[in-house]
Design a protein that fits this description.
single chain, alpha/beta, 5-stranded mixed sheet, 9-stranded mixed sheet, globular, 10 helices, UDP-N-acetylmuramoyl-L-alanine:D-glutamate ligase, 14 strands, about 300 residues
Length: about 300
């Protein structure tokens, strides 16, 4: 059984109040795959890169035991590239450059060796590519997690609604939840969105944590206060990877395990922002992750006397 992640494998160029980078390795599948690899040892990626990506960059993923049989390398073409500049509050950013390149006509290939997929993370790509991936799996996975964004709500809402009918978990931020549902109250938004298909909904609130909705239960996860945030790029993808990686590790899907998965996802995301790009995610180990989990646990632990 395996965890399959589909998403972008790309180059980013980032500018924040803390510094600026040239082209560095990024992409939703890259961040999610690295995060998941610390929790589960059978991670497989689906994606596409150009010949400019370089084997040394793919080795970053291979070094964590990630299977790249589903990653296409297009000779003579360039990889997806995104450049952005973050504002002083680090919660908003301006896109400076977007070059689709190989992503413009990406047709996902799901190898035979991926047909043992038990957990599927549909990273932030066009809803049509996400649908194609689902269609190319010979059986429905035990758990399908979808990440999407407001851009697809703006230009491909019909396709997005078709995907939502086929997934178990949706992860979006609070602004996207309000846009998708038309409700300002996140509780009402969650109720409407889950009527579209997902049994569970995670609403990310950045530095204010995350909310998990399932059945008639709600779980509020804290965010870890950090002294310095260098680069938020990829934090949401790292969250999704840590979330589904934990569930694949424990092998049982229920609300209590999802609560733990949200904390693990939050922990991996908190590492991600501490350095530019994937740098911090490359150098973790089990002890560091467990220490970070303990800090999250302490944040929300209290006793009531009297």
């Amino acid at each position: 059984m395996s965890l399959v992640i589909i998403g972008t494998i790309a180059y980013d160029a980032i500018e924040t109040p803390f510094g600026k980078t040239d082209k560095i390795v990024g992409g939703a599948a890259t961040f999610a795959g690295l995060a998941a690899s610390y929790l589960y040892d059978r991670v497989k990626l689906v994606g596409v890169v150009g010949e400019d990506f370089g084997d040394d960059n793919l080795d970053i993923l291979r070094s964590k035991g990630i299977n790249l049989d589903g990653v296409q390398i297009k000779e003579g073409e360039k990889s997806f590239f995104w450049s952005g500049k973050y504002h002083n509050d680090m919660n908003s950013r301006d896109t400076l450059v977007t070059e689709l390149n190989v992503l413009a006509d990406f047709d996902p290939i799901v190898p035979d060796s991926y047909q043992d997929c038990e957990y599927l993370l549909l990273g932030n790509l066009t809803p049509q590519v996400q649908l194609t991936t689902l269609d190319r799996l010979q059986r429905k996975p035990k758990l399908v997690v979808l990440d999407t964004m407001n851009f697809w709500m703006d230009i491909a809402l019909d396709d997005l609604l078709r995907v939502l009918k086929r997934v178990d978990v949706l992860t979006i931020n609070d602004a996207e939840a309000r846009q998708l549902s038309g409700e300002y109250s996140l509780v009402k938004a969650a109720e409407k969105i889950r009527q579209l298909g997902p049994k569970y909904l995670i609403i990310k609130k950045g530095e204010h944590g995350a909310l998990l909705f399932g059945g008639d239960r709600i779980f509020a996860a804290p965010a870890l206060p950090l002294a310095e945030v260098y680069d938020p790029t990829g934090a949401g993808d790292a969250f999704a990877g840590g979330f589904v990686g934990y569930l694949a590790k424990v092998g049982t899907v229920n609300f209590n395990n999802m609560k733990n998965a949200v904390i693990f996802g939050s922990a991996l995301a908190s590492f991600c922002v501490e350095q530019f790009g994937t740098e911090r995610l490359r150098e973790l180990d089990g002890n560091l992750i467990n220490e970070r989990i303990a800090r999250f646990t302490e944040l929300s632990k209290f006793e009531i006397e009297g």
